[in-house]
Design goal:
By secondary structure, this protein is an alpha+beta fold. The protein has helices spanning 13-21, 39-42, 56-74, 93-100; strands at 6-9, 27-30, 46-47, 79-80, 84-86, 109-111, 114-117, 121-123.
């Protein structure tokens, strides 16, 4: 019987990231679907900021975004950092967007009625995942 220091259930981006930081330990990752196949495969390829008031959650998401780009770069995983344009969903969102921009911590440009963030893009999927 094998003995592991850690067992990670779930081989999505979170599980794989944790395993990466535990690489000096004996780690077992289990996931019935395989590496980055479910939610991480569907949505994990997109990296974009959280637009909203500067709450703890918004700060956490935006800090994680910057961390993710750095993390992938260190692992030599290609990203397409082309930026992302976030637009209001409807007329009711327009005044909210004007309030949100007062608290943004990430660099942005106003474009086409929304906000363009240079810190946005996608992970180029690898056939090795």
């Amino acid at each position: 019987m094998e003995i592991y220091d850690y067992v990670i259930v779930g081989a999505g981006i979170a599980g794989c990231s944790i395993a990466h930081f535990l690489q000096d330990k004996k780690v077992l990752i289990v996931d019935k679907a395989g590496l980055c196949q479910k939610a991480s495969n569907a949505a994990g390829a997109f990296l974009f900021p959280k637009v909203g008031f500067n709450t703890k959650y918004t700060k956490f998401v935006n800090d994680a975004l910057l961390y993710a780009f750095d993390f992938y770069e260190k692992l030599e995983i290609k990203t397409n950092k082309s930026g992302v344009l976030i637009l209001p969903r409807d007329e009711k969102d327009i005044p909210k967007f004007q309030e949100y921009k007062k608290t943004f911590t990430l660099p942005y440009e106003e474009k086409k009625g929304g906000f363009f963030f240079e810190n946005g893009g996608a992970i180029e999927k690898s056939k090795n995942l």
